[in-house]
Amino acid sequence: MISNHSKISLPLKLTFLIFSIVLNCMGIVILQLSEAKVTYEKLGFLESFKDLPIALISLFAVNFISRFGTKKSLILALTIVGICSLILPFVEVFWFYKLWFAIIGTCFAIGKICVFGIIRNNISEEKSLAKTMNSVEASFMIGIFLVNTGFGWLISSQFSQFWKFGFLSVSILSAIAIFLFLKLPIAEPAKIEKENIIKDLSTLFNPLLIIFLAIIFSIVFLEQSFNSWLPSFYKKHLKVNSFFALQASSFLALFSYIGRTITANIIHRFSLSKYYIFCISLIVIVLAIIIGIQFVDTQDSKALLFLFPVIGLFLSPLYPVINSKMIAKIDKSKANLFTSLIVIFSSLGSSVSSIMMAALFGNQLLSFYSVYILSSVLVIFIISLIYFRFADEKI
Length: 395
Description:
The protein is mainly alpha-helical. It is built from 16 helices and no strands.
């Protein structure tokens, strides 16, 4: 158990804040590059350059992290992110965005495995783990809020042509996080002489784990439909300007932060499964109201600007709650490998979501955006019911 939780919590939160900014700037990039006449088809596949490296590198990252340790691996990932963010403002060509997102995705794969590994190796009890994970993941939502608010202000100002220089703040935050980690002693997991990934995976996989990974895929699929594409939905369908589209979208992140913060403070009072199902049920209710407004009142009602962000209040706890329930059952020696599977299926969910959203936008089907979202929620609801039915079984 970590002796001083607050000291280690700060750099972990800062790490997730940094990765949140660079991963969720996709909405800004899509908005700005679409103005520069880059097609939605190209922008839809741009997300894959971020997500596929995350999926491909994750299993290899397990051995890398085991060899060098979570602290050194995390510092390396943050260093690369800081350097790349320092270079980005000075490069104009589109192909560099592909390379930049690929590097960011690789670093995130390493970073997330390290963060989850540190948490798992110091906390064993299910609800305590859920509390810590919600607290750390809450900083991820703050990153989304800062991206939309900060870049929204920059884009709408007289310095809009310098919007990419906002990424210099990532370099500064990375330097601060590295400094904190260098000063902080972190308990490392016991080193294993030689790991056989295939053998370990074969012992880890079972029907319950497969259902869990399907849920992870679906939740991130749903989250990405909001995080990267909601600003463009606001602008193209609700006819608001770029600044207001980004500010309205930032409230989704703000509500998500509130949702995870509240969950971190009250989760110990409730059953994780009942709390999770309660949140999904509220999402369905809000979406039903949105669909009712769209198809009974008017499709471009400005009330949607305020209703969509409310979903973040109930959507945001799903990912950390379901992760903490499953990871608490995993042996500590397999925590990094298990986290790599979470990272892989999360990245696949994000990539597939972006491609499908690009098709939705490209075919002018934005009227069905809320119906599309509701369909995803219902799929998660059904799979989750099956998962919780068997969740008490040992892995």
